[in-house]
Design brief:
Elements lengths: L1 E7 L8 H15 L3 E7 L20 H9 L8 H7 L2 H9 L10 H8 L7 H15 L3 E4 L8 H8 L3 E5 L2 H5 L6 H12 L5 E4 L2 H11 L6 E3 L20 E5 L8 H12 L8 E5 L7 H13 L6 E4 L4 H9 L3 E2 L11 H8 L4 E4 L4 H8 L2 E4 L4 H12 L2 H18 L2 H19 L1
Parallel strand pairs: 1-2, 1-3, 3-4, 4-5, 5-6, 7-8, 7-10, 8-9, 11-12
């Protein structure tokens, strides 16, 4: 089969679980003998373990569509201007700017994208459809998330192939918006969902969330966890000299970085943990700079900067070294999330998890046996959970072994890719 994955790029400025999910999946499809490619929209892709021809363009260039959405006189900008704003240097610059991944302020843009051919990006949509129809000629198109469903009808009608859509954290984007935008966009996404042939939720938890929010029929909804290639990750026992707690995600408020920092400060007040270290990676955007600096100031006021290391590089080679030095990993996302790829990467590396009992985190912890959950999601409860875990070398070793074994058994991308291709075959047969 030839599968085209349409994926929002992120410019490489922060750890993007969805993007890494898509890259690992495309690589796994190729290893299984399928033709697979990733088409980026908005911003360039910067993804681990996935190499693609640089000839593949970025569609719906973020700067172009923002200007067209905001200024009527630029609706039909000349070709030379579009090429300029779509150049790698301009898009890379845009990815670093504040607001590039912020939902508030992009309500009209989100609605326009979901409207498809009736939105202001109708020209960009037709360019993408023509590219698929005349250049790629896929057997199936897989959309990275439901916010791209405005493309589905045109792809199905003109390219004449089924459209599959992944479901992961769309609620984080839409629920951050004010009313009446939020309700209108959920209703629009529900309507556009009728143009998709199948939906793939990344967890049982999120399947239930989106089934309710989008009224997805049972026959269209499937659950396939995110997978990785375990052989790419080095297994090591939890670090003990010194013990080190790790954080891996975009370092912002929503991902609970402040909870993590405050938990460290509380732990360090206990003489038992005088040698405890903290390492954090995952990057940030312009929006996060003020918040991040506040956390660093807090650590400085508590004389802890010497115990803290911020690692800017989160490519796979760097992450392998990062995991090797950790005793546990915690990413206390405020409201949880649909999955959390970093959890599987940590477990594959032998690093136990300490996660809040929100979102899909309990599902992953229960399935893997590679960590513990705590509630409520506060710094004090995180510090208490970390104290219990860090104080038991036997428990750490058991969770480490369980986690690695579970990744091999339950989260190996080879097995999960086979499940996905079975769904592709079904929707292709139904389309005939």
């Amino acid at each position: 089969m030839k599968i085209v994955n349409i994926v929002p790029g992120f410019g490489g400025t922060f750890y993007c679980g969805n993007c890494l999910r898509d890259s690992a999946f495309a690589s796994s499809l190729k290893q299984a003998g399928h033709q697979a490619m990733v088409i980026p929209v908005y911003l360039p892709l910067t993804m681990n373990n996935y190499v693609q021809s640089s000839e593949v363009p970025v569609f719906y260039g973020a700067v172009n569509i923002y200007l067209k959405q905001s200024f009527k006189f630029l609706h039909h900008m000349p070709a030379w201007m579009e090429r300029f704003f779509n150049s790698p240097s301009i898009l890379k610059y845009a990815a670093k700017k504040a607001g590039s991944t912020r939902a508030t302020g992009l309500e009209d843009m989100t609605e326009s994208m979901l409207l498809g051919k009736d939105g202001r990006q109708n020209e960009e949509l037709q360019i993408l459809v023509d590219y698929l129809k005349h250049h790629e000629k896929p057997d199936v198109v897989h959309l990275s998330n439901a916010l791209l469903l405005g493309m589905a009808k045109q792809i199905r009608d003109e390219v004449n192939v089924p459209v599959v859509c992944s479901l992961q954290d769309e609620d984080v984007w839409l629920d951050a918006m004010e009313e009446p935008h939020r309700t209108r966009l959920w209703n629009l996404m529900t309507e556009k969902g009728k143009d998709a042939d199948a939906f793939i939720a990344v967890s049982d938890f999120y399947a239930k969330v989106m089934k309710q929010k989008m009224n997805i029929p049972d026959e269209k909804l499937h659950v396939i966890h995110i997978g990785i290639n375990p052989s790419l990750y080095d297994f090591n026992p939890p670090a003990s000299n010194p013990q080190t707690i790790g954080f891996l995600s975009r370092m912002n408020h929503e991902n609970g970085f402040e909870i993590f920092v405050d938990a460290l400060i509380e732990l360090k007040r206990n003489p038992t943990f005088k040698n405890l270290k903290m390492k954090a990676s995952g990057g940030k955007t312009g929006d996060d700079k003020k918040f991040f600096n506040q956390q660093m100031k807090k650590l400085k006021q508590n004389n802890l900067l010497d115990d803290v290391e911020i690692i800017e590089d989160f490519s796979l080679p760097s992450l392998k070294e990062f995991f090797k030095t950790l005793t546990t990993l915690s990413v206390p996302v405020i409201n949880g999330e649909a999955f959390g790829l970093y959890q599987i990467e940590a477990l594959a590396s032998g690093v136990p998890l300490v996660q809040p009992a929100v979102g899909a985190f309990p599902e992953i912890i229960e399935t893997s046996g590679g960590g513990v959950c705590y509630q409520p999601n506060t710094s004090s409860m995180l510090a208490k959970a970390l104290t219990e875990v860090l104080s038991s070398e036997e428990k750490l070793k058991l969770m480490s072994l369980n986690g690695r074994e579970s990744v091999i058994k339950n989260f190996d991308c080879t097995v999960l890719t086979s499940k996905m291709t079975d769904i592709y075959k079904k929707v292709i047969d139904l389309k005939k």
